[in-house]
Design brief:
The protein is mostly helical. The chain has helices spanning 3-14, 18-50, 55-69, 83-93, 103-115, 128-135, 139-148, 162-177. It is built from eight helices and no strands. α5 crosses α8. Bound molecules: heme C. The chain crosses the membrane at residues 28-50.
Length: 184
């Protein structure tokens, strides 16, 4: 048998009738429609179970997202106050309760590292002889020198506000030595 007839016969085997064709299309359309229906049903169920229109939760989620996206560190330029001090200053502006440390607290937290012995020639707490000449420079100069740095002392403005620096000098010098810093 020539090859042509073999091929023609085989195609004949697989040809479908018009009835079979339309039956197939009907069934196929039914399957697609059912799947669509199931999809819509699942969406409706999922929405009723997990959909959340509560504005309070929405706001909380928003807040958390913002918090998570904020950088975990910040660069502080010299001269900018430390974060704790910045927030204290803000709350002062807004009339809130400010937490300004006492002179003794500031001294113990920041200044004592250098001002208790003879470190780099730093005048020690309560050493009237060492403070004598320096005190006569007056408040403005002394506070400025501490905030911006002076001689061997690095700038302390990042660790204490001017108010706290003044309080620290008041405690370290005035209360502990009896010397008095002139106003200007
Ligand atoms: C890293 C060490 C160090 C720290 C911390 C430090 N000081 Fe000093 N301070 C010095 C040294 C050193 C001097 C002497 C500077 C000089 O004459 O060269 C000095 C000098 C001073 C003077 C005299 C400045 C002048 O004009 O003569 C004052 C006032 C003073 N310090 C206050 C403070 C206060 C207040 C703090 C804390 C807020 C503080 N210091 C923290 C090292 C330090």
């Amino acid at each position: 048998m020539p090859l042509y007839f073999v091929v023609a016969l085989k195609i004949e085997d697989y040809q479908v009738s018009a009835e079979q064709d339309s039956a197939f299309i009907r069934n196929f359309a039914l399957v697609i429609a059912t799947l669509l229906g199931v999809t819509v049903l699942l969406i409706v169920i999922a929405n009723s179970l997990f959909g959340d229109d509560d504005p309070a939760r929405e706001a909380l989620a928003q807040e958390r997202a913002t918090e998570n996206m904020s950088p975990s560190f910040a660069v502080r330029l010299s001269g900018e106050p430390a974060p704790a001090i910045a927030s204290a200053e803000e709350s002062e502006e807004s009339g809130g309760v400010t937490e300004v440390r006492s002179g003794e607290q500031v001294t113990q937290a920041v200044c004592i590292a250098c001002h208790q012995g003879d470190f780099l020639n730093a005048p020690a707490v309560g050493d009237a002889g060492a403070w004598g000449d320096r005190v006569s420079k007056g408040w403005e100069t002394l506070i400025g020198n501490v905030a911006n740095g002076y001689g061997n002392m690095p700038a302390q403005g990042g660790a204490a506000s001017e108010e706290e620096i003044r309080a620290a000098i008041e405690w370290m010098v005035e209360s502990e030595t009896g010397l008095e810093v002139p106003e200007s």
